[in-house]
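Rotation project, supervised by the postdoc (A.L.). Task for the rotation student: set up a whole-complex structure prediction and record inputs and outputs verbatim in this book. Inputs entered:
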Amino acid sequence: NAGVTQTPKFRVLKTGQSMTLLCAQDMNHEYMYWYRQDPGMGLRLIHYSVGEGTTAKGEVPDGYNVSRLKKQNFLLGLESAAPSQTSVYFCASRTSGVETQYFGPGTRLLVL
Amino acid sequence: QQQVKQSPQSLIVQKGGISIINCAYENTAFDYFPWYQQFPGKGPALLIAIRPDVSEKKEGRFTISFNKSAKQFSLHIMDSQPGDSATYFCAASGRNTPLVFGKGTRLSVIA
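Outputs recorded:
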């Protein structure tokens, strides 16, 4: 039981490049979330999903897209990376009816 | 608009002392108030949580105090230990509102 895993752990991008971050969970959770963490800013919700095939915008969705084609996976895409997207990205999941979110280890992204 | 305000930003406490972190919220529809603990290089993990039907919840050395009328809640860490050194986030959510986090408090417990 690996919990929540994130791929990759670290990535360097040039401005304008695209990439996809993968989040996978093996707990059969319905809800999945993508957050970004910046110094002094806490965790801010980018997008989330309440079930397979659904997505919704969070607090800071601009510049990101997501997809939840399979229940266990939640993908975060950056179509054209900008330096302002340099951050640590965390994925989390939870089961319906239980508020506790389980976080992955994070992906550190540097956009030059 | 910051929905959950957390203070202080950083805190230094002597070993054995009491660490206190405060949070205030604005949305009266919030009905779930967790605290998450994050160690360097790791993802946050739930520490303790409370719902507004009780004013206090205690789990070991960790206690949440909740004041519904003031829209404030706080985390107390009794007998603070160096192993408690981490970043703590308060958060709040409601039925139709996803979890909103405070900006975090970096706690250092020194011997």
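Student's summary: The interface with chain A takes residues 6, 9, 32, 34, 41-46, 49, 89, 93, 98-104 of chain B (CB under 8 Å).
Supervisor addendum: Chain B has a mean pLDDT of 96.
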